[in-house]
Known about the structure:
Keywords: Methyltransferase, Transferase. One of its GO terms (biological process) is methylation. The protein is an alpha/beta fold. It folds into two domains: 1-45, no CATH class; 55-142, 3-Layer(aba) Sandwich (Rossmann fold). Helices cover 25% and strands 32% of the residues. The chain has a four-stranded mixed beta sheet, covered by helices on one side. Helix 2 links the parallel strand 1 and strand 2 (40-44).
Amino acid sequence: MAAMVVCRHALNGGATAVLGIDTDAVAIQDARAVASSDRLRYRIMPDKWLKLLTGPYDLIVGSFDQSPEELRAMTHVLSALLSPKGQLIAAVAPSKQPIGDDLAVDELISSQLVINRWYQVTDKRLTQTEQLYLLLSSRVSH
């Protein structure tokens, strides 16, 4: 459902075309039922197939809960899909919760990306093990 909201917001914000991708077929079906447009497409796609996308994209938005190694690999693939001034906005919930000096945010994503800003999000609704939820804004490095 979050993907559908982001896709609709992008269209309402003036995006020429939007592609919504999810591994969950039900989420894609629900999104198609709620929002459709000739400028909005949805695909059910496993993460391992992301490299088949053609790009370039000006903006990629996603949420990630992979291990640090999987996240680095996935953001490396996504960085290759960005236009030269493209941006990646990622909500990241690392499986191993870093604390204090172990918070090496730049090690979570591909070296092909530069982190412009990151935020630590805390919410009482998150469980104790989910207290750290990083929101990263990155762009392709030159």
